[in-house]
Amino acid sequence: MLQNYFVSTWRNLWRHKFFSLVNIVGLAIGISSSLVIAMIVHYEFSFDQFQLDKDRIYRIVLDTKRDGFEGHSAAVPASLAQAAQGEITGIEQVIPIYSFPGDAKADVEVPAGSVNKKTFKKQESIIFTNSDYLALMGYKWLVGNPTIALTQPFQVVLTKSRAGIYFPKKDLQDVPGSTLRYRDIEVSVSGVVDDLEKITDFRSKEFISLPTLEKTSLKDDLMLNVWDDWMGYSNLLVKISPQAQPSQIEQGLNTILAKHSKKEHFFSELHLALQPLSTIHFDERYQGMDIRIAHKPTLYGLIAIAGFLLLLGCINYVNLSTAQASTRAKEVGIRKSIGGNKKQLVVQFLGETFFLTTFATVLSIIIIPLLLQAFSAFIPEGLTFSFLGYPSMLFSVLLIVLLVSVLAGLYPAFVLSGYNPIQVLKNQQLVSLGQSRQALLRKGLTVSQFVIAQFFVISTLIISKQIYFVLHADMGFAKEAILTFRTPRDTIATHRMQFKQRLQAIPGIASVSNGFLAPATAGGAFANVSYFNGKEELKPTVHVRWGDDDFLDLYNIPIIAGRNAIASDSLTEIVVNEQFAKEIGFRQPGEALGQFLKYNDKEVPIVGIVKNFHTQNLHAQLAPLIFQNRWGDIFHVKLRSAHSGEMNWQKTISDMEELFKENYPDGEFNYEFMEDSIKKFYEKEQATASLLNWATGLTILISCLGLLGLVLYTTNSRTKEVGIRKVLGASIVQLISLLAKDFIKLILIAFIVASPLAWWAAHRWLDNFAYKTPVGWWVFLVSGLGMLLLAVLLLSVQTFKAAAANPVNSLRDE
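That's the ABC transporter permease sequence above. Prediction below.
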């Protein structure tokens, strides 16, 4: 019996090669896309799920408030670790994690002090911690004693891969005792652990013992004994006991913080909280420890897209399968007349669907590596094709095959198996079928396909329009042909001045400024500023920028009242923007001139007002800002536009790098154009738009295949009608209009249904922006006309073929 099913299935698929190909392609598109999405989603949700007792592991985070402004930090005061260990019951393990201050990187000298030493520049993934960290993450020890390896000062444990880089000619057993130098700290290797091949956000490769900090200047750099300030390099994990309640632990932590911190400080409220290990990968509020944050709404959106694509593939299969009803009806009639029952026929047709789905799945798996390469910009780092071999992913593949087989095959199986053999063999079944409820259902499925397609098209157009708007909006400052780079900290002002003068001498450079951050930056820089208006003290949340005399001119930021502040290392004058003047109560910005602000316990006069400019992306409203005239570690360079062309700019940048290396031989020359910096503000939005572009294209493709199926079904079922009308004098144009008008109605119905849904979803997304593009009526018009035109082109081919056919062939058996 099974052999008969298989032979029948193969013969039917081979006999209808075109339908089989279209079905396989439609299903393969939906399945392959869904599998890639399933890999991405499953990978993101797999982070840090392997640790023992993971439900009892927390990261301590810090929430702050000041004048209605809320802040969140993954970093905590470094002194908290020791206090928490000794003063709070219910904590099993306290695991501090400290990185090198600065850029969290270090030059590593191997072996330390040797004549044949080799220096590895800017090594990453180096932390100061204890042996509990290695146990928590489940590192396997290859060499060394885990109980003593990180207990003494100047000890370090390496991973196997990092030991292989530093000591390529040594066996692992000989690595302990070797010396390394991190910046000015010399340590001895006390152990080697295997690399952690788990999906985790904690990817450190070198572990220096905590007691080392007490013996070096890093003790002060990391502020190990300070309670009212903290660095981004100070993080803390804890593992609580099974009986402990997180709320009690939090209460104990905040009691310690209140006891040790000053009564008055910059923030009106400080609160320590326990962040579960499972949420670290998804909580955007607490970014730190070089952890990549995944966006849960985006992942849920991807799941929805995968569901839509699978659904479209199933609808497509149903339409194409029922379109073949006229060619399968007699087969069903003959099988029933010789003893076949409905159950056997249902099993046969479901088997065909399962076979086709399995084939499409195999094809999908083959093309997944190509999709991973095509979607490389959206694939999380560490996700490879091998992830498909995980048991959970193999189960997902099997589930998709079964789900698609049932959803796609069940309806056609029951329809085809339900034919009356007597009516079929008398050629009466298909006549009555044309006006049946099944035909209405097929039309409803096609409308559903195009509703989804129209929804994606409209949403994509609106999102793309908003991204174009934010990338080209007037930010209030010049951004074309401007780049920035940071120099190593230089305490001698004359060095920076001389360096600036030499930069200005490079032919391709129009102007140079030195200062702090660019006008708009992803990072925040705030100042503690207050103004007393005679009745109350106002404390707006203020952004701060500073630069030399050329900063405002370079960025074309006009002073609309007063003048620029006099350059000075000690703050004597200050410039504010229009928004600041407005927030302290002045309707006309110029009225704020001469007023005194309290800045760091010092009275400073306002001497100038600059025009408003955006200091952050367009998600946020314009912020009050103060500007100081002083030097910093960042140089801002405007290139000459007369030297157009990338090659000329590259020559100028090369000259800049050569001059940089001459002045700062140990520094790294890393530059970034302002336009690229602004693009980075909207990386998530651009990724969303790109994914929607792909989803839209796939949705339209599958929908058109479904429309083709309905066209084929209709033309097959109305062949004799077309022949009779043609004999009676109907023209080809009239016949095409007759056959196409029903499909046009379906497209219009889909547009009417999809438009309000897309409008609502787009406006919800646009609410994330303080400044947004208007959603014009033309977006809906372009979407509707574009989809209608595509459908008409597709319809014209098949309907013309049917209308132009010789009526003798269709009426021959009458």
